[in-house]
Design brief:
Elements: E1 5-7, H1 12-18, E2 21-23, H2 25-28, E3 34-37, E4 42-48, E5 55-62, E6 80-82, H3 90-98, E7 100-105, E8 107-112, E9 119-125, E10 131-141, E11 148-157, E12 170-171, E13 173-174, H4 176-185, E14 199-203
Parallel strand pairs: 2-5, 5-11, 6-11
Antiparallel strand pairs: 1-3, 1-8, 4-5, 7-10, 8-9, 9-14, 10-11, 10-13, 11-12
The structure holds 4 DNA strands.
DNA sequence: CCAGACGTTGTT
DNA sequence: GTCTGG
DNA sequence: CCAGACGTTGTT
DNA sequence: GTCTGG
């Protein structure tokens, strides 16, 4: 699945340029690199402007709250949406029809191993740089305060050959040519596992476990001898 | 008809 | 065990 | 995803 | 809002 990720670029303007999106200047003012984005956090999404073809880059909360929800309690149970069932699920069907987004990131974490000894891996693009994750978003008005929140969920697929030994799900990573079909038409054919050679995996520290930790040292590769005797899933790396 | 759910993951 | 918060 | 709380009353 | 279950 996808329960934590990173966006470590120095300038959010570079993300706007890469995705050909207009940057919300109010949101951009508070930008900082993130090494441990967790459910419930504010993060960046690229979406089409209302009725148009222009893309915007702005902040939204991770964990989809449907516009009809009485409260935001279910947000944490809607951080991911299975690609296979998007069109059937009541919570996602409407958003699939009209509110797709792309979630910019430069890596995501997956945990593996036995209960109580699970270890995080950081997966990133083999050549480095940005990844485009497929997502859905929605607006929700808090009935108590009248405040409008925008929230999103990340689509998941079965794993590719790299991720399969670690986990049975992974986020839907869009190739550059798949971004527009996803945003404009919700073309579900783009929701497939990333090519087997698209990503590389690094074992990282269990300090990632706590969402309070959010600094560059989280991405430092952890050596085998620091790994506490876990089995070697990645002998060559 | 009204009431109640609407989700994913991991673990057992 | 289960829910909330980060 | 994992970590941490899970409660009320009265007093400051 | 919309669907399923009773």
């Amino acid at each position: 699945m996808c329960g934590r990720f990173t966006l470590t670029v120095a300038r959010i303007e570079a993300v706007a340029e890469a995705f050909d999106a207009a940057l919300d200047p109010a949101d951009a003012a508070g930008y900082r690199p993130r090494y441990n984005v967790a459910p419930g956090d504010q993060h960046w999404i690229v979406r089409l402007a209302a009725g148009g073809r222009a893309r915007t880059l702005g902040l939204a909360g991770w964990g989809l709250v449907n516009h009809w929800a009485p409260d935001a309690a279910r947000a944490f149970q809607q951080i991911n949406a299975r690609a296979e069932t998007l069109a059937q699920r009541r919570a996602y069907r409407e958003a699939l029809k009209s509110r797709r987004c792309v979630v910019p990131t430069d890596g995501f974490y997956e945990w593996y191993g036995p209960p109580g000894a699970r270890r995080p891996m950081w997966l990133r693009a083999r050549a480095g740089g940005l990844l485009a994750l497929a997502g859905l978003y929605e607006h929700w008005t808090n009935p108590k305060t009248g405040e409008v929140r925008t929230t999103f969920t990340i689509v998941t697929t079965p794993p590719n050959a790299l991720v399969a030994p670690i986990h049975d799900r992974m986020p839907a990573v869009l190739a550059e040519a798949e971004i527009e079909p996803w945003l404009a038409k919700g073309d579900r054919r783009v929701l497939h596992a990333a090519p087997d050679d698209a990503l590389v995996a690094t074992r990282v520290s269990r300090r990632v476990n706590s969402a309070r930790n959010d600094d560059p040292s989280l991405l430092e590769p952890e050596r085998e001898e620091d790994a506490g005797g876990q089995q070697r899933l990645f002998g060559g790396s």
